[in-house]
Amino acid sequence: NVQSSSDNRSTIIVYGMLTSPAVQRVLATLIEKGLKYEFKLVNLRANEHLTSSYLEKQPFGTIPLLEDVDGFTIYESRAICRYLEMKYKGKGTELMPRNNPKAEGLFEQAASTELCYFDPHANNIGRELVLKK
Fold it and tell me: Strand 37-41 vs strand 12-16: parallel, antiparallel, or unpaired?
């Protein structure tokens, strides 16, 4: 669901909770790219992610969600990070290798390993430490 509007502003908006590893992933990317952003809390405990206004932007009701300066909306943390790297190429830290098949292959290997083998366990630990308090 590609959303874009003529709403031009100077700051990217990130919706989520700071305790979310997925939100932290996006914030780390923004910081590495040197991009200004505004953080808007979506309190999952208060079911703010299930409101009709949030579900219009993110139909699965998950976090994070990013609204770019031109109004473009994107969700899923890894997709957001790749989008930011591609759109803001040349700003801040270069986060993905380009024009080198071996380096790109190793990057994709590491990204897949993180997604499949590390992230599920880290999220389980996070839920135990944060949400069950």
Answer: parallel
Specify whether 81 is located in the same domain as 106. Answer: no
Q: Is residue 14 located within the same domain as residue 57?
A: yes
What's the number of domains the chain is made of?
A: 2
The encoded tokens of residue 110 equal 């590491």
Give the Cβ contact number of residue 69 at 10 Å: 16
Q: How far apart are CA 70 and CA 38, in angstroms?
A: 14
* 3-state secondary structure (DSSP) of residue 81: helix
Q: Full-prediction pTM beyond 0.85?
A: no
Q: Using one digit for the tens of pLDDT, what is the confidence trace for 93-119?
A: 898 888 889 988 988 898 888 888 888
Structure tokens at 43: 């309190």
